[in-house]
Amino acid sequence: MKYSQQNARPKILLVDDEADFCVITALGLKKLGYDVVTALSACDALNIMRTNRPDLVLMDVSLEGQFDGIQTAEQIRSDFDTAVIYLTGHTDDFIVRQAKITEPFGYIVKPVELGELKAAIEVVLYKAKTESELKNLNRRLEEANQKLHDFAHVVSHDLKTPLRGIRRLTEWIAKDCANKLTPDGRKHVQQITERVDRMYSLIDRILEYSSVEDKDEDKSMVDLGELVNSVTEMINSPENVTITIENQLPVYECNETRIAQVFQNLLGNAVKYMDKPQGRIRVGCVEEEFFWKFSVKDNGPGIEKKHFDKVFELFKTLVPPDKGGGTGIGLATVKRIVEMYGGSVWLESELGKGSTFFFTLPKREATSENEKSAATATARKQASIFRGTAI
Ligand code: ADP
User: Fold this and answer.
1) Distance, CA 238 to ligand 1 centroid (Å)?
2) Which secondary-structure segment (H or E) carries 89?
C-alpha cells in the first residue's frame, strides 16, 4: 500500500455525494490537522487521485452516480494502492459483505463522530506507513542482493582468468628456473602460489555467499543425521579431532545443499580452529515448540564475548590469513541461509574452553514474506531468550 507523506500533514480524500456532509466533515478533519480534498462523485475522486495523490480515502459506500462507493474503492485500490476507509449509513449485511471484497481498512458508520474517525484514520495511516517502509526495505534488499550477485559474477569471471595466468606462470618459474632461484626467490614464488590460491578461494566463497538468495529452491525431505555424516566425511578432519552426533537429528524439508553449507561451515571452523591435542566436536539438536534448535560445540580456543556478533559479519575474521584464518565469509553465509529459512544463529563461548554455535530452523516453513519476517522476528526473540539477553 502506498504512503507518500513523511512529516507533512496527511492528505485525505473524502468522497461523498452529500455536499453538506462533505463540508462539515472536511472542516472537522482540517481542525484535527489533516489536509482534506473532497469529491462528490466517483469521477471527481479518480481525477483527484491522479493529481493529488492522497494518503487515505474516506469513501461513502452508497455513492450516487455511474459507480458506487465500493466500485470506486476497488478502482482506487487497484490503480493507486491507497488505503480506503468506508463511511456507511448502512449496517446492511449485503453491503458490508460486498465492501469486504475490496479489503477496506475500516468502516465508520454515519453519523460520523470525529474522535472515532480520527482514531480510525491514525491506525490506518500508521499501518500504511509501516507497510510502505517494509516494502521499500524489501525492495532495497532485493536490489542490493541482485547487485551483489551480479558483482560477484563479474568479479569471478574477470579475476579468475588473470589469476589462472599468474598461477601458471609461477608454476613455470618454479619449474624452469629452479636452479637459478635463490632460496629466498623459491620462497617468494611459493608465497605467490599460496596467495593466488587464497584469492581463488575468496572468489569462490563470495560467489557461494552471493548465491544464497531468498527464492524458491529445490527442496526435499532431508535426513539431517545422514547429511551431517556426509559433511563430516567430506571435511576429513585430522585424527586427533572427533566429530559426534549427540542425539537424533530430524528429517527436515529443505534444500540439501544449503543446509549442508551451514553444517560444513560450522564443523569446518570447529576443526580448522581446534587448538587442543584431543579435539571434541559435538552436534546436537533439541526440539522446541516452534523450532529445531541445533548446536555445534567444540573444545577449541573459544571466542571473546566482544566478538560474538562481529564474527557473523561479512569479511570479519579474527585470525589473519597468514596465521591460518580464512576469508571471513563462512559465518556470514551460515547467517544468511539460516535467516532465509526464518531461523536465527548465535554463539556461546568461553576463551580457552571452546565455543558452541546454535542455530534454529522453524518446524513449519513460512510461505509468505510476512510469515518469513514474523518467523525471523520470533526466532530472534527465541535466540535472545536462549542467550539470556534482552532484545
Ligand atoms: P573464516 O573462518 O573464513 O575466517 P568465518 O566467518 O567462518 O570466517 O569465521 C569468522 C571468524 O570467527 C574466524 O576468523 C574465527 O576467528 C572465528 N571462529 C569461527 N568459528 C570458530 C570456532 N569454532 N572457534 C574459534 N573461533 C572461531
Assistant:
1) 18
2) none
- Exposed e or buried b for every residue in 29-57, given b needs 16+ CB within 10 A? beebebbbbbbbbbebbbebbeeeebbbb
Cα 383–Cα 385–Cα 386 angle in degrees, nearest 5 = 65
Phi, psi (rounded to 5 degrees) for 297 = -110, 135
Supply 208's cell numbers.
Answer: 557461494
pTM: 0.60
Q: Whose CA is nearest to atom 13 of ligand 1?
A: 317
For ligand 1, atom 14, which residue shows the shortest CA distance? 317
**Residue 6's pLDDT band (boundaries 50, 70, 90)?**
low
Residue given cell 559426534 in the structure block: 244
Across 132-146, 185-199, 279-293, which has the greatest mean pLDDT?
279-293
Which protein residues touch ligand 1 with a CB less than 6 Å away? 265, 269-270, 273, 298, 300-301, 303, 311, 316-319, 325-332, 355
Nearest-atom number in ligand 1 for the CA of 327 is 3
What pLDDT sits at residue 390?
37
